[in-house]
């Protein structure tokens, strides 16, 4: 493997190859927080997109939390109309998202080029959007920034939802059952978000879907004004005009989507029953996906979080931004191709004849090592990295206890060294 954590430049051809694997191509777009490039996987010739984020931006704690959340969300979402995250890489100064490449670009460009789409064409995109949104909501994810710019098209004219940087998950919902963070793009934001009294993430996404559908079928946004105060007043009051040329069924659906009252606004399940939505026949595809929980329950070993991989990369340890450090000990990690169950069996063998008790974690690949008085000495965790590799993490605890220190020195550390030698790749630490 090429040396990690740097972009390699091959002078003879002036190519930029990221981590010896992705040849960087043209710039696709520039956002407030990242640049996106087209790239080619030099191993198989397939196109990917590379989202590049500067490490300097992580000084902002809120932005850093958004990055962590986006990675966590993307790794649990696998749907034909949601952009795929392949892997996350890191250098001393940047984070790289390697994602699915949508060859046809933004849906915004499609609309801008044709002024407006036929209802049949718009319906096809809208069905794919609702399929993706329903899937996200079923997994407790609320996008909160659905707009034409965040909807891409692949080479087969299929829609792909992207940019989950502002997304929320269920554990962000407050005791009142609502989300409270004000976010989104002005022309697409739901009125209840502007009210700053809390909102239902699913209902807010439906409103944004309504704005998208309106733009697809008319060629312009329902709410638009150079004066942001005037714009928000129009949104809050629901002031928009439906053009005469659209069908009655579409007018009815748009009115229900852009209902300023979230309690009476149409739901995703009701959209699936709508006459315009189902015109010509439609069947929502069932997407079979292994969720993180299903994978963990099946194997008993926790899949590796992509954000954890970032923290392993040379020169970029961001764990201090996201994890509480209790200062009680040392964390050691190695990559190994040893079978996870055998790793824990070896831990059991290591402590036989000592004063230490091993207690396995239920539904998780790990165990804690306790002394005679129940004091914690160490924690061993095994994360699934790939089908062939695992990451073994040992956290040393129990400061000042002689037998604990000796156990770490004479038993656990040598085991880590042994496991590190049993691997099939070179890992920089």
TrEMBL record:
Residues that span the membrane, as ranges: none
Domain Protein kinase: 22-277
Cofactor entry: Mn(2+)
UniProt superkingdom: Eukaryota
An annotated Gene Ontology molecular function: protein serine kinase activity
GO BP annotations, alphabetical order: signal transduction
The protein's Enzyme Commission number: 2.7.11.1
Keywords: ATP-binding, Kinase, Manganese, Nucleotide-binding, Serine/threonine-protein kinase, Transferase
Domain NAF intervals: 299-323
Annotated Pfam families: NAF (PF03822), Pkinase (PF00069)
Catalytic activity line of the entry: L-threonyl-[protein] + ATP = O-phospho-L-threonyl-[protein] + ADP + H(+); L-seryl-[protein] + ATP = O-phospho-L-seryl-[protein] + ADP + H(+)
Binding site for ATP: 51
UniProt similarity note: Belongs to the protein kinase superfamily. CAMK Ser/Thr protein kinase family. SNF1 subfamily.
UniProt-listed PANTHER family: CALCIUM/CALMODULIN-DEPENDENT PROTEIN KINASE KINASE-RELATED, CBL-INTERACTING SERINE_THREONINE-PROTEIN KINASE 14
Protein's job: CIPK serine-threonine protein kinases interact with CBL proteins. Binding of a CBL protein to the regulatory NAF domain of CIPK protein lead to the activation of the kinase in a calcium-dependent manner.
Designated name of the protein: non-specific serine/threonine protein kinase
